[in-house]
Write a structure and sequence with these properties.
With 277 residues, the chain is mainly alpha-helical. It is built from nine helices and four strands; from the N terminus they run H-H-E-H-H-E-H-H-E-H-H-E-H. A two-stranded antiparallel ribbon has the order 1-2. A two-stranded antiparallel sheet has the order 3-4.
Length: 277
């Protein structure tokens, strides 16, 4: 419980930074930039945390270490880190203030390590400092590109929205309700193997889904998608990659997918219906 409280405080700080930031900029621009920031953070965590086991979060929400890692990662990479970066970019902070805040992140990471709610394997806190410092300039560049409303920025923003939504949704139902899991033999730990494949699966699949949302959003496209998604899940199940519990069904994957895409289409209409200013 004590571990969870520390991560909850981190999340609350993130929410406060979000509240302070979104009022200072165009809401459409803010959401688009936040999605991109969160997507980058999740991509980094996939390689550093899941594939290369650099560190571990210990919020103690799940007994399973890897599902517990996803909770800690969500508090950090979906909330605290993106909101901090957005704060620095939105308020156009000077170098001295940026260094000061990033040093604060360094101290938080060291504190979490010291009280054993976060653990380094080969990672170092100063790696985080450097990556976040570079990220600020990437976000500034991306913000300027978003304002130009070029097709690439729209595509990547919607792609980031779809892949983070689908990754998050599928891992949540795996962790809380044990609906399904994957076994591909990448790792000896069952949950790590499942999370690693699930994330890679949606990183690739979301490219197709983004094309559907942006360029061929129609009833017929959804019908083909449902049939194709059902068939793919059946093939994965027959191949012994996908394992579904008795109270779940491959059709439910498709229903969840369609609901998410309908939501993302609304998001796309809202974000890109006019030039961001």
């Amino acid at each position: 419980m004590q571990n969870t409280l520390w991560y909850a405080i981190l999340g609350i700080i993130g929410c406060i930074m979000i509240w302070c930031t979104y009022k200072k900029t165009d809401l459409r621009l803010y959401i688009a930039l936040y999605i991109f920031t969160m997507g980058l953070a999740f991509f980094l965590d996939y390689f550093v945390l899941i594939l290369f086991d650099a560190y571990a979060y210990h919020p103690n929400v799940f007994q399973d270490n890897w599902y517990d890692n996803t909770v800690g990662s969500s508090m950090s990479q979906a909330l605290f880190i993106p909101s901090l970066l957005m704060l620095m970019v939105t308020f156009q902070m000077k170098l001295r203030m940026i260094v000061f805040l990033l040093f604060g992140v360094f101290l938080i990471e060291e504190l979490f390590t010291m009280i054993n709610i976060y653990e380094h394997y080969w990672w170092k806190s100063w790696y985080t400092f450097i990556i976040l410092f570079i990220s600020i300039y990437i976000l500034k560049m991306w913000r300027n590109l978003l304002k130009q409303q070029i097709p690439f920025t729209r595509f990547l923003t919607i792609y980031m929205a779809i892949t983070t939504c689908m990754q998050g949704l599928t891992i949540i139902i795996q962790a809380f309700w044990r609906t399904h899991h994957y076994t591909v033999g990448w790792f000896s730990e069952l949950s790590r193997d499942s999370i690693a494949f699930n994330t890679a699966y949606w990183m690739i699949y979301s490219l197709l889904l983004t094309v559907i949302v942006l360029y061929c959003f129609s009833f017929s496209a959804f019908t083909i998608l449902l049939v194709g998604d059902f068939s793919l899940n059946v093939i994965l199940e027959k191949a012994g990659v996908l394992h579904i519990n008795q109270y779940w069904h491959p059709v439910l994957f498709g229903i969840c997918l369609i609901l998410v895409l309908l939501m993302i289409k609304k998001l796309d209409d809202y974000l890109f219906s006019r030039i961001l200013k």
